Amino acid sequence: MLTYDILIVGSGGAGLRAAVAALKTPGLSVAVVTKTMPTRSATCMAEGGINGVLDFPGQKDSLDAHSFDTVKGSDYLGDQDAIDFFVEKASEAVRETDFWGTPYSRRDDGRVACRFMGGHQHARTNYSADKTGHILLHSNFDYALKSGVNFLVDHQLLGVAVEGSGDDAVCSGAVIRNVRTGEVVPVRARAVVLATGGYTRMFWARTSTPYIATGDGVGAALRVGVAFKDPEMVQFHPTGVANGGVLITEAARGEGGYLVNNTGQRFMSRYAPDKMELAPRDITARAIETEIREGRGYGEGLKAHVLLDLRHLGRDKIIERLPQIRHVGLLFENLDLVDEPIRIRPTAHYSMGGIDVVDHRTMATTLIGLFAAGECSCVSIHGANRLGGNSLADAMVTGKQAGLGCAAYAARAAMPGESALNRLADEWRDHFATATARKDGASPTELRDRLAEILWNDMGIFRTGERLAAAYAAVGDLQGEYATARVGNPSPVCNSAYTHFLEVGNMLSLARCSLLAAMHRTESRGAHTREDHPARDDANFLRHSLVTLKGGEYCLDYRPVTVTRFKPEERKY
Hints:
This protein has 3 domains: 2-49 and 131-233 and 350-418, 3-Layer(bba) Sandwich (FAD/NAD(P)-binding domain), CATH 3.50.50.60; 241-346, Flavocytochrome C3, Chain A, domain 1, CATH 3.90.700.10; 421-560, Up-down Bundle (Methane Monooxygenase Hydroxylase, Chain G, domain 1). Helix content is 36%, strand content 18%. It has 573 residues and is α/β, with parallel strands linked by helices. It has helices spanning 13-22, 63-73, 80-100, 132-147, 216-223, 251-254, 281-293, 315-321, 323-333, 390-412, 419-437, 444-458, 465-482, 496-520, 538-541; strands at 2-9, 30-34, 50-51, 114-115, 125-126, 150-153, 155-163, 170-178, 184-194, 228-229, 234-241, 258-260, 306-309, 342-351, 354-356, 370-372, 377-378, 543-550, 553-560. The protein contains 15 helices and 19 strands.
């Protein structure tokens, strides 16, 4: 058994930032568990920039303006106390990472360069070309290495352990699996931070997120009684490449790119005449799908698309500010953005929902000793729709607060007992033996592909109650097949089949939660668009969905949204 004061699961921006913050408290040992190399997390795919209002002479932007834009962007489902705290800390995060030596792009006067992103009144998205997430990730990784963080690379989270029951229940650590050797390892810790990223890979064939974004942390928290908050709120980024959904960053539109239909029209004039291509993501994604549905796109079926045209920006600007997406165009579509428009369609991109966090200052959950940060958490900052540039800010802010919060807790908490942790480790050893011994049963990859098709067709950009109910039942059937699915490889060594088997199980469970909450939210709000209930309903649904797992059953409850300064109003751009 391994023992640390603090165990952080996930090595993206939020996990690394939490580790660095936790080590500011002297005398604590910190370990980071990661399923892959730290530099290969989803953070490196966040390209457009990091939001934060920087104070300089002549600045027209303000913290209040950033707060209002975030609240309005969330379609008023974001908790406003958490948002106010977030925007203040986001500004600090940009200054802090700049001080670390993060190579931000610069203006002629030396200030950090910033650009417009959708839904913002002002240009506040600070950037490093179009590789900001990649750059920030390396800055945090370097700082974590320098700070003495221990890394357990190629280890998969299996479950969180809980010692005691009722009001005395505390998180006592986690059970992980060494992917290389197959060893099941219990890790005792005073505090655990889950920073495992989002769950949008459940859309599998049409998503911009990496293959590791399978909701492992959300699934682990759900199994020990922590609620999954707002699971129906999945963001579809407007511009994924037509072939598979890899991201074309919003920076492309922030720099002045045009969205064009098959008549050559910049069609956003019909949907957001003031903001045009810089409307929020939910509005822009719906606009693209509407163009395709009404016959103004190119192609048919899953190959249908519209065009993103950057040619008018000129070769020099594209190469200087958008080198990454030019590379994506060459790699996935075999075209050069300097010379040709690129074929795009919305793609499942970001999880606004996540592990229910009940204190935005410490990122604590309802289970004592368990914290969450980054995309796997839900404070809620983003509500029903996240604004571009707020994800990297979220990772830096919630990661730091989780690190500070868990360290303050761990410094005063006793080391928990081992009994629950050992029992959980034994259960997972038995699970591996049983699952890998099956000779018959469904293929997990086949179940995964069927899940992706169900979700894209029935819980995509446009939804109806009838389709959601059918999908909820269909995913329940898939879970039934999964219970007896075959892994096909009995060896514990480098068993990637078992790794993916567990990931498919998490995706099925989280999809069921998402469908349940979506089915009962009989309104349209942000990314959740119900064709049978097209209006927003503040009287009944200005509240967060909370899905818990009790006795194998998925249960739905609600909590009111925190409204402070900004009263809900009609959302126009």
